[in-house]
Specification:
The structure holds two protein chains of two kinds. Chain A is an alpha+beta fold. Helices cover about 45% and strands about 10% of the residues of chain A. In chain A, the strands form two sheets. Chain A has a two-stranded antiparallel ribbon. In chain B, α9 packs parallel to α11, α9 runs antiparallel to α12 and α12 crosses α13. The chains are: A alpha+beta, B mainly alpha. Chains A and B meet through β1 and β2 of A and β2, β3 and β4 of B. β2 of chain A pairs antiparallel with β2 of chain B, so a sheet runs across the interface.
């Protein structure tokens, strides 16, 4: 079993915010066109802003995927809710870790296992568990397929087994 | 007899008396709206109103204009408003850009233009609709209202199925179906949209509220139909 650095108690949202703080927004300039029946004017954004992920950083890729801007017509600008993006990213981490457990547990019905249920019941705001889970996510990401989270190769299997053991240890310690 | 006179018909000029156009407040709405209305940034935002997106429809634009011109459309049905809105469309020149930073519409223009009028066929299709909608809400709660419903069916005529039916729901349906039939071909030759709507409204008022004035109006209107002339107005009892 490999020992990881990081984790401990901290607000999980604060772990994600550094990835989001430099995000910008689109310029509120829209092209106006008519529909085919000339009974509606459609407004479409001239240029859509999309943030760029830090290559190889799974958390950065996750927050970019969760990027969402809203338009405030009163203020005449786009804006982003950074905490909302962070929360969505954390939900996605939990969802992906559940998929990881389901794909890698060596049981007939992994969804009925204690570990799977434990992961499913962790809240995104859990300051005790989420930091470790987020670090575990970063740890397994380079060694697994990013949809099923099954190991890429034999070397990858060592890391996924390691991660499962850590999760099981967390479950035994903190499960109520 | 004076109570059966059509004063409005007598006031019409000879061309109108010959051509028998339908009088409708929808024509008033249309005539009070401009033929062409340029939409600037502030108007565009006002037309968006509370809607979710930044697109604007002819419907929203026409309603905005009506509010701006103080036109009261609270009595208009959805179909009537739809008919008015179909007389308009948008026209774009250039490639307009809606710029919120500068609060402008630049590089082009957007106009709302009137492309047509409400023709006789459209107006005929809308005759009596508001009244039919009202009559569709008829509820029969006691023997008194059932007998009044029968009386209305006698006046409307051709409601034998309704008269024979025992169920209040079937009777109500017979009345509504008969009203639809009357206005489908404009059997009673009513040429005033407001008066046509009142047929259904008086029906409702008499059956539900035992409103005798409404009953008197309905009966007198039916008598006027026997003249086999177009009906533009009637002296109403309130």
């Amino acid at each position: 079993m490999y020992i990881l650095d990081g984790g401990g108690c901290m607000n999980p949202i604060n772990m994600m915010l550094p990835y989001i703080e430099n995000f910008g927004c689109s310029e509120p300039i829209f092209n106006l066109t008519l529909n085919s029946r000339n009974d509606r004017v459609d407004a479409s954004l001239q240029e859509t802003y999309l943030p760029t992920a830090i290559e190889g950083d799974p958390l950065s890729e996750l927050v970019v995927k969760m990027y969402n801007e809203s338009f405030d017509i009163g203020q005449k600008t786009f804006y982003i809710d950074k905490e909302y993006i962070a929360r969505r990213a954390l939900h996605e981490v939990l969802s992906n870790m559940a998929t990881f457990v389901e794909s890698n547990l060596d049981t007939k019905k992994p969804k009925l296992s204690k570990l799977y249920k434990f992961i499913r019941n962790v809240g995104y705001s859990n300051e005790l568990l989420m930091p470790t889970i987020v670090h575990l996510y970063k740890y397994i990401y380079p060694h697994t397929y990013n949809t099923t989270f099954q190991p890429l190769n034999i070397e990858g299997k060592k890391h996924t087994d390691n991660a499962l053991l850590i999760l099981e240890a967390l479950r035994k310690k903190y499960e109520k | 007899m004076g109570v059966f006179d059509d004063k409005r018909f007598d006031e019409l000029d000879w061309i109108s008396q010959a051509t028998e156009p339908i009088e409708s407040e929808l024509n008033t709405y249309l005539s009070n709206l401009p033929d062409k209305y340029s939409i600037d940034f502030a108007t565009y935002i006002a037309m968006i109103g509370d809607s979710y997106g930044l697109n604007i429809s002819v419907s929203a634009a026409v309603r905005f204009l009506m509010n701006k011109n103080g036109i009261n459309r609270s009595n208009a049905t959805w179909e009537q408003m739809d008919a008015v809105e179909k007389c308009f469309q948008f026209e774009i020149t250039g490639n307009p850009v809606l710029n919120f930073k500068e609060s402008t519409i630049a590089n082009g223009t957007i106009d709302l233009i009137k492309i047509g009028i409400l023709d006789e066929k459209t107006l005929e299709g809308l005759l009596g609709q508001r009244g039919i909608q009202t009559a569709s809400g008829l509820y029969v709660s006691n023997p008194g209202s059932i007998s009044r419903l029968n009386e209305v069916m006698e006046i409307l005529g051709k409601c034998d199925n309704g008269l024979r039916a025992r169920s209040p729901r079937m009777k109500r349906r017979a009345v509504v179906d008969r009203l639809k039939e009357i206005f489908k071909t404009n059997e009673w030759k009513i040429k005033n949209a407001d008066l046509a709507d009142k047929v259904g409204i008086w029906t409702y008022q008499y059956v539900v509220n035992n409103n005798l004035a409404a009953w008197s109006n309905l009966c007198r209107l039916k008598v006027m139909t026997h003249k086999n002339q177009c009906i533009y107005s009637m002296e109403e009892v309130v």
